[in-house]
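Ticket 4471: requesting a sanity check on a complex prediction with magnesium ion. Repro inputs:
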Amino acid sequence: MPEFPDIPRHIAVIMDGNGRWAKERGLPRREGHRAGAESVREVTDACIEIGVQYLTVYAFSSENWNRPQAEVTALMGLLDRFLSDKAKDLKKQNIRLLAIGQLDRLPAKTRGLLEKIMEQTADHSAMTLVLALSYGGREEIVSAARSLATDAAAGKIQPAQIDGTLFASRLQTAGIPDPDLLIRTSGEMRVSNFLLWQISYAEIVIVKKFWPDFRRNDLIEAVREYQRRHRRFGAL
Ligand code: IPE
Ligand code: IPE
Ligand code: MG
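Returned structure tokens:
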């Protein structure tokens, strides 16, 4: 697309503000999450439209397990519905689905659905949609460190061999390029344990709107903002 010469290869999104969106309308929080799922669909379509190769969405953090049980249950239910509804579109749109996070903490039904769709879409090539579920950046880094320590203790690797490349290969995002653009909605200026290693040089765009109000044009506007940035990677 000529008007988009410099499309981020990987966009990562902290989808925040569903609860406040609902509160503003006098609705229960789950209605905010329901509306937020619609934004995921629209933003996925917009990413395909402009040629983004990877879209990672933070749908549920390790810390979100600490929310009231009713909200966690509602979120898992919506996730199941999203996965069942979206399976056909992923096929039609040639999208590969991946998931990162402590997936063994998810309900068996959700994990089963996820695994089935990941298997069915494994060779899709138009775009990769990565769902961060029960995900925490610190947990991911600790687990990579543990796996390297285990190999070192078993004599499979030497500690001196451990460098950035080897470390990154033990993260769940191994094989996925680092995000170029990180978007957070609802105006919050924090990272909340998302992709701590991977966002080292991501351009950050904070949007005031709540996630359910973030749609195609907002994604395009965030990409335009990204295109106005001058990335330096520490050099001049
Ligand atoms: C984002 O919206 C969705 C999840 C974290 C699961 P929130 O639920 O955090 O909504 P706010 O931030 O309370 O408004
Ligand atoms: C970050 O949002 C997690 C997700 C978007 C899934 P939170 O609402 O959980 O983060 P905090 O509590 O504002 O830091
Ligand atoms: Mg929030």
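Notes from triage: The domain at 10-136+178-228 is CATH 3.40.1180.10 (Undecaprenyl pyrophosphate synthetase). Leaving this open until the requester confirms.
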